[in-house]
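Q: What would this chain look like folded?
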Amino acid sequence: MLSSLRAKAALLSVLILLVLLGIWHVATLTATPVAAQAVQLTPEQIEYAKLMGKDPTAGATAAPAKSGFPTLAQMGKAIGAQLAHPFYDNGPNDKGIGLQLAYSLGRVGLGYLIAAVVAIPLGFLIGMSPLAYRALDPFIQVLKPISPLAWMPLALYTIKDSHISGIFVIFICSVWPMLINTAFGVAGVRREWLNVARTLEVGPLRRAFEVILPAAAPTILTGMRISMGIAWLVIVAAEMLVGGTGIGYFVWNEWNNLSLPNVIFAILTIGVVGMLLDAMFAQLQKAVTYAD
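A: My prediction, written as C-alpha cells:
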C-alpha cells in the first residue's frame, strides 16, 4: 500500500515537472520580430539602442536577445558547462559551482556547529530549571525576532572579516530554533519517567543522558532541522551582501554578468542542496523517534 502510494506520488511529480517544462518551452519558443519593434521606435530611441550596442534594424527577425529569459536548450547548455568543470578556479570572480558550494557549506557547517554547542546545553538548563527559564526568556524574546542580516553591519565592524562575519550570522540565526525546541523538549519529558529515575536514585548527569535526552531527542532534532533550513536561506543572502565566495556571491556575480541561465542554475542548485540537507535531518529525526 505504501509503495503504491509512493509510486503514484513520484509519477504525479514527474507529470507536474513535464508540464512546467512544457510551459517554459512554449513561453520562450517564439522569437520577437525585431523589424516590427523598430517600426514602433522613434529615431532617438533607435540611436540610443545603437549606442548601447544593439541595432533594432539589423534584420527582419532575430532570435531572442541574450538578456531575455533562457530557453530549455540554453539552460541545458549552461547546466552541462557548469557540471563539466564544477571545481575550476580562474581567480576571485571566476570559480566553479562546486567550489562555491563548498565555501557556503563550510560557513554553514561551522556556524551551525557553534550554535548547537551553545543552544543544546543552554536549552537543557532552561528546560530543567524554571528559574533559568524566567531569567533568560526576556532576552530570548527580544533577540529572537531580529533578522540575522541586521547583525551583519555590526559583525563586519567588530570582526572586520567577511568570512567570519558570515559564520557569525549563521550562528545567530541557528541558535534560536535549537534553543527553544531543546528547552521545550526537555520541559515536556513525562513526569513519571523522571519520578522512576529519582526512585532508582539516578544521578543528575546520568538522568540527563539516559532519560531526558532520549525523550527530548525528536523535539531537539526538529529544532536542528528548522535551524539548518534557516541557515541555508541566510547564507545565500549574506554572501550576496559581503561578496567574495559562496553560492550567494555566485548568483549575484552571474547576474552582474547578465548570465541568466547560470543564475537559474544556481537557484536550482540552492534548492536541491537545501532539499538534501532537510532530508538528512528528516532521517535523523525518524531514527530517534519512537512509538509509545
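The chain has twelve helices and no strands.
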